[in-house]
Amino acid sequence: MSQELKRAIEESYRVVVFTGAGISTESGIPDFRSPTGLWKKYAPIDFQEFMASADMRAEAWRRKFEMDKTMAKAAPNKGHMAIAKWVGEGKVSHVITQNVDGLHHVSGVPEDKIIELHGNATYATCLGCGLRHELEEVRALFEASGAAPDCRDCGGIVKSATISFGQAMPEKEMERAHEATLGCDLFLAIGSSLQVFPAAGFPILAKRNGARLIIINREETDMDEIADLVLHEEIGPVLRAVAMLN
Questions:
Q1: Strands 114-116, 119-126: pairing kind
Q2: Of 41, 48, 178, 213, which is most buried, counting CB atoms within 10 Å of its CB?
């Protein structure tokens, strides 16, 4: 089956890769939605709750820094490195990801090739003026006061640069993902349950537009039946073999 995947990539002119939590669990980052996922321990805080309550903002930052103890240990695995290799070779035009861990950046994929649909957990932004805040700065202020810090420029609310429940999807990134999907002739959906919309609509869009759809995921997905190839295998070993990494 990996030979069929290899042949499909070689025969394609413009590949788009779409990644979900499954590629990062192999780097030691727990997912959110599984029976043992992070949301079983920490129920997600709705965006409106975050905005309305200083106490909820403080709780959100407390959870964030607790989860970062795990995320900080993670490094890109062979799956990430294979994708980075294909981007470097010009085979993959864009990496659309549902993940917020930043591991595609660390693997060497250029920033302009990455489309983060759910944001990025490695820094924070002011919801008022958009100023970027580094997490070290936010952590120091939080630990000193126990309160969620305000923006140093405008005094606005500072939030991890991720998309929360109830928060609007980023229009620019959604538009970029739409354009990239329509421009590909092969769409690789990797490590995603393909259940979370609107993000999960991109594989369907690619298929309807005439691209081949290949799904690589340990578990079955609702879109397996429309895919041209489905691999229910460990992601890192499969991509490592196809990309011929050491």
A1: unpaired
A2: 213
Q: Give the integer Cα–Cα distance in Å for 186 and 16.
A: 6
Average pLDDT of the residues in 71-76: 88
How confident is the model at residue 73, as a pLDDT? Answer: 85
94 part of the active site: no
pTM for this model (two decimals):
0.94
CA 206 to chain centroid, in Å, comes to 19
52: domain range?
A: 30-73+119-162
Q: Is 184 annotated as a binding residue?
A: no
Catalytically annotated residue among 80, 94, 104, 118 = 118
- pLDDT digit string, tens, across residues 193-218: 999 899 999 999 999 999 999 999 99
- How many separate domains does the chain show? 2
| Boundary-marking domain end, from 108, 127, 162 | 162
| HSE-CB of 115 using CA atoms within 13 angstroms | 25
